[in-house]
Backbone:
């Protein structure tokens, strides 16, 4: 089904709501199944339980690879652009990708891995990362990709939570002018991970690494031991495809579980629809495969659609701020999908970095991960799109698996900063704080979803109770997104930001509780409260208030100790921009920290703090205001 006009969109939306089973059942026919599904949907948001295509059998890699060999064997599947512009790009055809995936899948099998086993992948943005992901899916193993910017502690926690039997990593990684010792970090993590039997190490930087005999295996040796014939494991539609961890408002990260059939159908449909991908187009999503955006819209969606997808190893600022635009010109990119944070950073650079390059190949632009402000939207539109490319502002989540609210390129009339309208099948509901549905337009509320969609996460790995409590208990019968949202007089949606204790920094989710518990581990700190405050590039930055055991003599010293602690425990992305040492925190009589007040102070908006009389000690607010950074 193709949506090429607003009328077709409205018709498709109507069909999807009136008869969801027919709508998704029809769409599922465009795929290769070992057994076509006869049951389309079973669901109950109270349990909550959702099954799509439950008696269908398939392997997603046959849809991403095998079926394209008939007419697209020589078409490029992946273009890989390395960190350093001096190094040659790679063009990998569908045939070559198929062979490399099958070969690596045989490596996994040779070491005893199979259906249902969890495999952790901690790799730089090299083609072998996509190959490792697909090889897991080929044999029915469940991949858990951990972003290569996470620290050893964060890696170990994720490996242990999923009880991974194998880790796939690299000797090191190149990011801009830096080289990162991935294997060293992995070794540190593995000291705490007894479930891991083997580590496959891809050689990227050729730096010295220590290899533990019996445990550690070189990628390039292993692939010599096997051939490239590997039949796909037949999977049930509801079998696990992958786990991907995301931060929550409390406690440890949540391993969101995605399953095979619904995820495939939804990511492929949304990829084709939102970007209006046409055969021959070159599509580039700048995300890292370590995040959901990379899973759904670098690997699975584009490959299942038979597209050519570009993978970029580097960063936007290396060797200079023109790097993205150089790559667009070099490879003649048609569709470009990035994060508002990157746009805001590039907007600050001189325009000559843009104007040096011919960007006329671009047809469609996209953004994801956080709200885009009007100034950045306009800059992107004028300087990159030359007022001639639709911008699709795509709202979705690790939990949703695929894009939920977005313009359809060239179809939906745009409104800057608005994610516009829900995609077919997505039933949005705004709730007020008391849990009543807000019906009208020109309103604001909490964004919920009232009906299942095929790519929704089915559970939190090993903790279904937490899944229910986090997403289905705030408003009974609804999935709660955690986001605030506005619906304007035209029925257009605009995401206003998180309403829970998750902070989106540079498009990455960070839980305040997770950062607080790390800072609390410092021997000099008694208690911490972490909030977000507006930042002109990162969208939000982190502000930490810490109560110390005694007067701090050297604040800078303590700050840098806290920063290293956060960096080592979670990763550099979680480092607070500001740390203020305070004598106490504003708490209610029941001991709850009033974060609303701390957020206002951190944003330097303390004229009107609202009612603070319910605080145990209202005078603490004055103390905190005096020391604000
Ligand atoms: C935020 C990323 C505004 C939102 C795909 C959501 C957005 C969280 C947008 C999920 C957007 C994502 N406009 N906010 N277009 N896209 N968000 O799990 O707060 O890394 O809940 O998934 O990012 O982040 P996640």
Residues:
């Amino acid at each position: 089904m193709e949506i090429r006009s607003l009328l077709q969109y409205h018709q498709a939306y109507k069909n999807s709501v009136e008869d969801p089973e027919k709508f998704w059942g029809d769409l599922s026919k465009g795929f290769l199944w070992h057994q076509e599904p006869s049951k389309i949907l079973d669901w109950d948001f109270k349990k909550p339980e959702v099954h799509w295509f439950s008696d269908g059998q398939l392997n997603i890699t046959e849809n991403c690879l095998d079926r394209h060999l008939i007419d697209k064997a020589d078409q490029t599947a992946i273009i890989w652009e390395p960190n350093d512009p001096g190094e040659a790009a790679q063009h990998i055809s569908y045939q070559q990708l198929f062979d490399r995936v099958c070969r690596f899948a045989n490596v996994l099998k040779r070491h005893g891995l199979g259906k249902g086993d969890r495999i952790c992948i901690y790799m730089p943005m090299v083609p072998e990362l996509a190959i490792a992901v697909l090889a897991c899916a080929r044999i029915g193993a469940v991949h858990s990709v951990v972003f290569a910017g996470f620290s050893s502690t964060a890696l170990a926690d994720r490996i242990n939570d999923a009880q991974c039997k194998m880790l796939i990593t690299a000797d090191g990684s190149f990011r801009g002018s830096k080289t990162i010792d991935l294997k060293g970090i992995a070794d540190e993590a593995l000291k705490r991970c007894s479930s891991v039997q083997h580590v496959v190490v891809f050689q990227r930087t050729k730096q010295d690494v220590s290899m533990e005999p019996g445990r550690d295996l070189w990628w390039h040796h292993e692939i010599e031991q096997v051939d490239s014939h590997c039949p796909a494991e037949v999977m049930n539609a509801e079998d696990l495809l992958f786990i991907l961890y995301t931060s929550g408002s409390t406690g440890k990260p949540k391993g969101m579980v995605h399953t095979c059939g619904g995820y495939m159908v939804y990511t492929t449909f949304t990829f084709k629809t939102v970007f209006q991908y046409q055969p021959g187009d070159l599509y580039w999503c700048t995300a890292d495969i370590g995040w959901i955006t990379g899973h759904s819209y670098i690997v699975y969606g584009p490959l299942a659609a038979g597209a050519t997808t570009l993978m970029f190893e580097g960063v936007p600022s290396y060797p200079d701020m023109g790097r993205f635009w150089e790559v667009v010109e070099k490879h003649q990119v048609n569709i470009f999908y990035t994060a508002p944070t990157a746009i805001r950073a590039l907007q600050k650079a001189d325009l000559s970095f843009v104007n040096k390059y011919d960007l006329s190949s671009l047809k469609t632009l996209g953004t994801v991960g956080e709200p885009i402000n009007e100034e950045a939207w306009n800059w992107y539109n004028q300087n990159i799109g030359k007022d001639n490319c639709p911008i699709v502002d795509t709202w979705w989540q690790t939990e949703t698996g695929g894009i939920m609210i977005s313009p359809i390129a060239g179809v939906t009339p745009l409104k800057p900063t608005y994610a516009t309208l829900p995609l077919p099948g997505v039933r949005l509901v705004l709730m007020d704080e008391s849990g009543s549905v807000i019906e009208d337009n020109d309103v604001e509320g909490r964004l919920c979803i009232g009906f299942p969609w095929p790519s929704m996460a089915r559970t939190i790995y090993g903790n279904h109770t937490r899944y229910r409590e986090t997403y289905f208990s705030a408003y009974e019968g609804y999935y709660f997104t955690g986001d605030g949202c506005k619906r304007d007089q035209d029925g257009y949606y605009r995401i206003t930001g998180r309403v829970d204790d998750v902070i989106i920094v540079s498009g990455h989710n960070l839980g305040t509780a997770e950062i607080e518990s790390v800072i609390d581990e410092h021997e000099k700190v008694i208690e911490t409260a972490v909030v977000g405050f507006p930042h002109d590039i990162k969208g939000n930055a982190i502000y930490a208030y810490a109560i110390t055991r005694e007067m701090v003599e050297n604040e800078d010293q303590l700050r840098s100790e806290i920063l290293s602690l956060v960096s080592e425990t979670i990763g550099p992305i979680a480092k607070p921009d500001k740390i203020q040492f305070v004598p106490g925190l504003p708490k209610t009589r029941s001991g709850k920290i009033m974060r609303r007040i701390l957020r206002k102070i951190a944003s330097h908006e303390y004229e009107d703090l609202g009612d603070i009389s319910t605080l145990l000690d209202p005078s603490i607010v004055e103390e905190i205001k005096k020391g604000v950074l």
Q: What stands out?
A: The pocket of WTA is lined by residues 246, 291-293, 368-371, 393-398, 419, 481-483, 495, 498, 504, 509 (CB under 6 Å). The chain has two domains: 6-485, 506-626. Residues 6-485 form a domain with the Rossmann fold fold (CATH 3.40.50.12780). The two ends are 54 Å apart (CA to CA).
